[in-house]
Amino acid sequence: MQQIAQQADPVFLLTIAGLAVLSLLILIIKFKVHAFISLTLVSLGTAIATGVSSSQVVPTMMSGFGGTLASVALLVGLGSMIGKILEVTGGAKVLADTLIGRFGEKKAPLALGVASLLFGFPIFFDAGLIVMMPIIFSVAKRFGGSVLKYALPSAGAFAVMHAFVPPHPGPVAAADLLGANIGLLLFVGMLVAIPAWYFGAYLFGLYAGKKFDIPLSEAFFGEAEIINEKNLPKFSTVLAILVLPIVLISLDTGLNTLAVSGVIDGGSPIVDFLRMLGKTPVALLITLLVCLAIFAKDYGMSKLESLCTQSLAPICAVILVTGAGGMFGGVLRASGIGEALSGALSDTGMPLILAAFLISTCLRVAQGSATVALTTTAALIAPMVASTVGLSELDLCFIVIAIASGATVLSHFNDSGFWLVSRLLDMDEKTTLKTWTVMETLLGGIAFIIVAVLSYLI
Fold it and tell me: What is the pLDDT of residues 430-446, one digit of tens each?
């Protein structure tokens, strides 16, 4: 979204942003006003206070809300249907039992995290988390305890892969803007993502699971019983259903990387068609159709249609609150808060890798979207990178990861991912800040420390 607010002093804009977040904390946590209402009210007030013209206030709010809903509603809706079918047919139980049989109960969070790291290579954060939710809840239901113990290692895995590793759009776009080598960035991204995940998501997830007792969410895993315990699907069938969207999404992310690298013609009709099949909503739709075809023989389309309908009812709050989070982020983007802060930081003369991290952090905190923070920061510092003599291919990769690290930290109310995790796990906002926000900050902070040290040593 382009900046449409009047130019204002960066200190004034920062003050408005701080007051907006403080207002949300007070409304939601102290006065218990519903998050959807609070986000809408504060978005309206922020737009007015930052100088968005009266004629553009509502369009700005609606644009942020609608843009987020356009992707989230489709993903959550299709994902909930797939999850419900796998739940009541016993598919989630089969996969969970197989997973635990091979790794053991004590290593269940590790197994879920490693599986998510593998799934997260081609699949985006939100889609990956939604596909994994039935498995996470099945494991949590079997062994009991807080669902955070199982959910955070998995969510953290998708988060680090999405932020640091090609072929995801953020690092690919940043690499293209800065002239970094995609192949080398893939290696460096994996080198950074794995330890960042282990310490920031896996170990923290185990700690958070002991500290916060979060019961199973009913949004994706209710109290429905398996229809027929004697007719459970095969492990290979369930695995194929879960792998299918990953394979399809790989078409989009993989072909995009090849096009950016100049290996293939990105404008080819065949490439465009294959990439369309790999767009996340289309990939999940195809997966749902395959899922219906597989289970229709045993359960009938009438029963499956009923399950799909049942799956949609509990997720209304997930979709609306996530959309409202996107609305708040959209208003902050239109206000110019992030650009004002990053512009001030770029003139301080600090080391390039540190400036990249801090500018990206400011953009992330100011407007919420990790991908926007990543790509915008890369564009802002590209002239600084170009004018700096002696930067190696590794240095460029370290700068890209530093930007991605800043774009990961401090997820809060203006990040639609914050609300997606909060509502899927049935966590209140205060607990989400203490768990999800802390985990994201650990992931970004650890990743930056790794590349900063490497940049100094190499």
Answer: 999 999 999 999 999 99
Q: What residues contact residue 77 under an 8 Å CB cut-off, 6+ apart? A: 312, 315, 319
- Classify each residue of 447-457 as buried b or exposed e, where b means 16 or more C-beta atoms within 10 Å of its C-beta: bbebbbebbee
Q: What is this structure's pTM?
A: 0.77
CB 50 within 8 A of CB 8: yes
* Non-local CB neighbours of 420 within 8 Å, separated by 6+ positions: 72, 76, 126, 129, 318, 322
- Helix runs in 313-369, H state only: 316-335, 337-345, 352-367
Beta-carbon contacts of 213 under 8 Å, excluding residues fewer than 6 positions away, are: 145, 146
**Smallest Cα–Cα separation from 165: which of 253, 276, 255?**
253
Residue with tokens 């110019």: 336
Q: How far apart are CA 206 and CA 400, in angstroms?
A: 30
SS3 124: coil
What residue segments make up the domains of the chain, in order of their start? 10-457
Q: Which residues contact 263 (CB under 8 A, 6 or more apart)?
A: none
434 Cα distance to chain centroid? 17
Alpha-carbon dihedral of residues 269, 274, 275, 278, nearest 10 degrees? 160
Integer CA distances (angstroms), 84 to 134, 204, 224, 241, 256, in order = 8, 29, 9, 13, 32
**Rounded mean pLDDT, 184-207:** 93
Angle separating helix axes 203-211 and 438-457, nearest 10 degrees: 160
334: Cα within 13 Å, side-chain hemisphere: 28
